[in-house]
Amino acid sequence: MSCEPGATRNSQLTTHNYMKTPVIAVFDVGKTNKKLFLFDEHYKIVFERSARFTETVDEDGDPCENLASLRLSVFDSLHEVFRRPEFDIKAINFSTYGASFVYIDEHGKPLAPLYNYLKPYPEALKEKFYHTYGGEEAFALATASPVLGSLNSGMQLYRIKYEQPDLFRQLYKALHLPQYMSFLISGKVYTDMTSIGCHTNLWDFKHNRYHEWVTKEGVLDKLAPIVSADAVFPASFPGNNYAVGAGFHDSSAALIPYLVSFSKPFVLLSTGTWCISLNPFNEQALTVDDLRADCLCYIHYQGKPVKASRLFAGYEHEQQMKRIAAHFNVSPARLKNIAYDTNVTEALRERFKIEKKSTPQEQLAAFGQRELTLFNSEIEAYHQLMIDLVEAQVSSTQLAIGNSRVKRLFVDGGFGKNVIYMNLLAEAFPQLEVFAASMAQATAIGTALAIHQSWNSLPFPNDIIELKYYAPSHRKVS
């Protein structure tokens, strides 16, 4: 990505001294980091570049994505890689964070900022919407998402219609962010199912179509036609004869390598700031209790629902680590390297009985309510933190599992590298094979895999995911 003022960048390059290497370029756009990868036909990274842009603000002064910087960086980055003689660009695809629309006119020019999905939503307008369309509970069940304000991105369109009617009239298409990036290169406007299915309030999961409000409010005309996940288009951007994918919602893209690699039913626990349990093998409809516990449904790249549960566990882990480190006067890095000790966990379970809470979110708060003076060392305190976090995670993941017959649990991201977390999780799910799964840039690889046939002459790879098995330990009987 090109460096705008206020941006930082790092690059890594592996060159080949022989014939041109066929590659796919993948733009992986997160809220913080914007990355470009080139993968060869073995899905090895042969080039990568990252940048961070300074946010701008919308008309209300709320922070939002710097759309102009993002757009320029795409063009500048492509100009650079096309100039490199060692690469033969066969295709380009995109993955970005969800719940974000770019509003364009008939000439493709953005008409408004890329509003932040954390932007506060007007309470009166929200009440009007849900009163008109059956109430919060019934609507949330139909669209398989809790009520999340601007994070239900369809609500952003509803807001524009009533608060900015002139903008709504000028609006040609509202493109989900992955499809806007694809549009920059292909000149084509499309919508993909993974973006529609990401808690947008747009999709009726029971009837497998847009919800009735989308038509009644005149929003359907503002949405681009739906295209299949493996569709590709010719490029309008200068370069060689390469294919352009339609783009993906990032959480759904990260699931693709697992769906391609494993046929035995599984749950993917993707860990980071949010820990999201994704179950593509649970076909049960959401219940009211599921919604109250922060469950929702996504749609994976083959168009089927994925039951998911969310837990803010990575964030809680960071906050409580800081508290432990300050209390015992050690560095947070020291805590991350503590070895798993079954004797410590058994002793702690005897001293501190787990009080079952009604929701995983309430369970997650358990350690924050504990007095650190009750612990003799940072080793004890950190083990108890992990016991409490895993207890909450088990409750959350079990909601995604439901009655489905999953056989495996894959854990990727930060907690997959935490031996205490992984051992406790394996102990909590003795009926499942629990693996720490590691794969460099899962989201970007998934984005490339989805259009594999359009650029790669080799078969699907079978070695892109590294697995480490964790056997459930046997508790000592006192």
From TrEMBL:
Residues of the Carbohydrate kinase FGGY N-terminal domain: 24-216
InterPro entries: ATPase_NBD, FGGY_C_2, FGGY_N
Keywords on record: Kinase, Transferase
Carbohydrate kinase FGGY C-terminal domain residues: 264-453
Keyword match Transferase: yes
Molecular functions (GO terms): kinase activity
Upper lineage: Bacteria, Pseudomonadati, Bacteroidota, Sphingobacteriia, Sphingobacteriales
Family the UniProt entry places it in: Belongs to the FGGY kinase family.
Cross-referenced Gene3D superfamilies: 3.30.420.40
Name of the protein described by the UniProt record: FGGY-family carbohydrate kinase
